[in-house]
Amino acid sequence: MPIRSPRLFLAVLALLAVASILLATMVGSTVTGPGAWLGAVANPDSHAGEVLWRLRLPRALAAFVVGGLLSLSGCLMQVLLRNPLADPYILGVSGGAAFFTLAGMGLGVAAAWWPPLALAGALVSIIIVFGLARGSGPWSGTRLLLTGVVTASGWGALITLLLAQSDDSSLRGMLFWLMGDLGYARLPGWAVVVLALSLLLALGYARGLNVLAMGETTAKLLGESTRRLLWGIYFVASVLTAAAVSIAGSIGFVGLIVPHLARLLVGADHRVLVPAATLFGGSFLVLSDTLARTVIAPRQLPVGVVTALLGVPLFLLLLNRARVRGGAR
């Protein structure tokens, strides 16, 4: 049952976001405990201060932004396709971004150029899917989904071919990045701008999203320009996905699970659901990344592995809950 005070819940989620980032800066092989953390904050030139300010805080902020990007994208994709199983990676955008980035890695391109490569690959994928799915007739979510799935499969085949031809020295790093890795992630300013602008656009689309969730026919009867709205949602969701992949690789389940959980807690009103999913997704990925770098320290796990291990049981629980509720009716 949705929470009766969504605004209070949004405030709680904002506090959770701050708490998750503080925890991420505190937990690890050094700077553990409030006293040591305060000492590191006060002395940024010390070893503990260097770890906190130059490693952990940028990584935690990057994780929060990537989680917000994926969750917001998943929220929009589920409305776009009117499918609760839709996630940010379903339409092939991440495949294009991943292929271009991995190709750059294989050619020895510096890490600073990986985000532009990922954005270029995502743009190519957007153009392919948009061009093939647009057609001349009325909008078809099914045509878009099929085009995206086939495009994603094509990118997957190219990525497999690329990995098979890579030498052993670069293969491990490429696989680690492909599974989702925040080990070398830093928070670029443009990603914050993308998230903020997309959040504002999604809030501006909130009424249209609420109507569209009831069906395209209903939306047309209520005066919504569905074709323009649908393509706008697709473009924003694709840009969000491309930005997330360019920073941290392919991190699964965040864009699938978090919108579901947020919808159960705050309801289906996108004026509340959109910011709730964004905040919740950011906190979820920060906590997942903290587990990824501490559970078998000093070794680190790809954060995509942790989100999958957490996401699979959560998703099965949601499915079982839906089945029980359906049987009760």
What does this 3D model show about the protein?
The chain is 76% helix and 0% strand. It contains 14 helices and no strands. The chain has helices spanning 6-26, 34-42, 47-80, 93-106, 114-134, 141-164, 168-178, 189-204, 206-212, 216-221, 226-248, 254-266, 270-294, 303-328.
Structural class: mainly alpha
CATH fold call: ABC transporter involved in vitamin B12 uptake, BtuC
Please state the average pLDDT score.
83
Order of helices and strands: HHHHHHHHHHHHHH
Low-pLDDT sequence parts: none
Compute the gyration radius: what is it? 20 Å
Number of helical elements: 14
Which superfamily, in CATH terms, is the homologous superfamily? ABC transporter involved in vitamin B12 uptake, BtuC
Count of discrete structural domains: 1
What global shape is seen?
A: globular
What is the helical fraction, as a range of percent? over 70%
Keywords for this structure?
single chain, 329 residues, mainly alpha, ABC transporter involved in vitamin B12 uptake, BtuC, 14 helices
Fold topology:
Layout: H1 6-26, H2 34-42, H3 47-80, H4 93-106, H5 114-134, H6 141-164, H7 168-178, H8 189-204, H9 206-212, H10 216-221, H11 226-248, H12 254-266, H13 270-294, H14 303-328
Helix pairs in contact: 1-3, 1-13, 2-3, 3-8, 3-11, 3-12, 3-13, 4-5, 4-6, 4-7, 4-11, 5-6, 5-11, 8-11, 12-13, 12-14, 13-14
Structure at a glance:
It contains 14 helices and no strands. By secondary structure, it is mostly helical.
